Amino acid sequence: MEIFGSTFDDSVFLQAKDRVAVPLSHYNAKRCEPEWFCESSALCTDDPLEKQKVYKFRGDLALKQGNYQKALDVYSSCLELNSANNLTIRRDVLEGMARCCTELGQRDRALHLTDLLSKDASNTCHLISILMLKVRIYQHFGALASRMSCLQQLCSLLPFNPWHWFNLGQMCLELLDSNRTSGSCSLQSCEPAEKTQNDGDIQEQEEEAAELDGDRVWLKSCTCFIRTR
């Protein structure tokens, strides 16, 4: 009876075969000068992929420098050369164009570009980046309700990310302050000189409904800050 583990395979005691050492070929790393893509000679190539990279790098540099119109034009040139199967550059270019349109005040075009990005989304990471881009767009244009909807979706996708819960809580407070300010302004500016009994009842019902909505938003903000902690 053999004891378990006491036997060895014969191959363990064989001598190792002599291995022939293969010399490695010499590798020369390509060196590029700073902002090499800004030179006119960078586009003197027949490779469309290299031209796309040049345009993309130029657009990224213009976006970083705050020259949004120039960056938008360069990104558009890069998108014209983009092939259907090169989704990586396409996503980066569309996101850069959306950020440029946001800074230039072109809200509709920026949202249209995010819709194009949504069609190319293939995983959760893409969807998260699109939602964060929409949050930035809605924040720039002061769309509180749309921004809150995107933050809620982010919290659903990443329930353990404290920053999304914190931003959503802050968003609820901003919405609450906005509703209070608009409600007080509307009451002061639209208050008639003489009130009838029916008008007083309608206004009282509207104030009660606004108070209930305010309590609900306040409860949401508290919940978000608790999740953040």
Spatial extent as radius of gyration = 30 Å
Q: First CA to last CA: what distance?
A: 63 Å
CATH class of the largest domain: Mainly Alpha
Note the beta-strand portion: under 5%
Number of domains: 2
Tally of separate helices: 8
Helix content: 55-70%
Residue ranges: pLDDT <50 for 5 or more in a row? 184-198, 205-211
CATH homologous superfamily of the largest domain - what is it?
Tetratricopeptide repeat domain
InterPro entries: DUF5588 (IPR041404), TPR-like_helical_dom_sf (IPR011990), TPR_rpt (IPR019734)
Pfam families: DUF5588
TPR repeats: 52-85
Keywords: TPR repeat
List the helices and strands and how they pair.
Elements: H1 48-65, H2 68-81, H3 87-103, H4 107-120, H5 124-141, H6 144-157, H7 162-190, H8 197-228
Helix pairs in contact: 1-2, 1-3, 2-3, 3-4, 3-5, 4-5, 5-6, 6-7, 7-8
Q: Can you walk through the features of this model?
A:
The protein is mainly α and 229 residues long. The protein is flat, with a radius of gyration of 30 Å. Keywords: TPR repeat. Pfam families: DUF5588. InterPro entries: DUF5588 (IPR041404), TPR-like_helical_dom_sf (IPR011990), TPR_rpt (IPR019734).
Provide tags for this entry.
single chain; 229 residues; mainly alpha; Serine Threonine Protein Phosphatase 5, Tetratricopeptide repeat; 68% helix; flat; TPR_rpt; DUF5588; TPR repeat; TPR-like_helical_dom_sf
Describe the structure concisely for a colleague.
TPR repeats lie at residues 52-85. The chain is an all-alpha fold and 229 residues long. It is 68% helix and 0% strand.
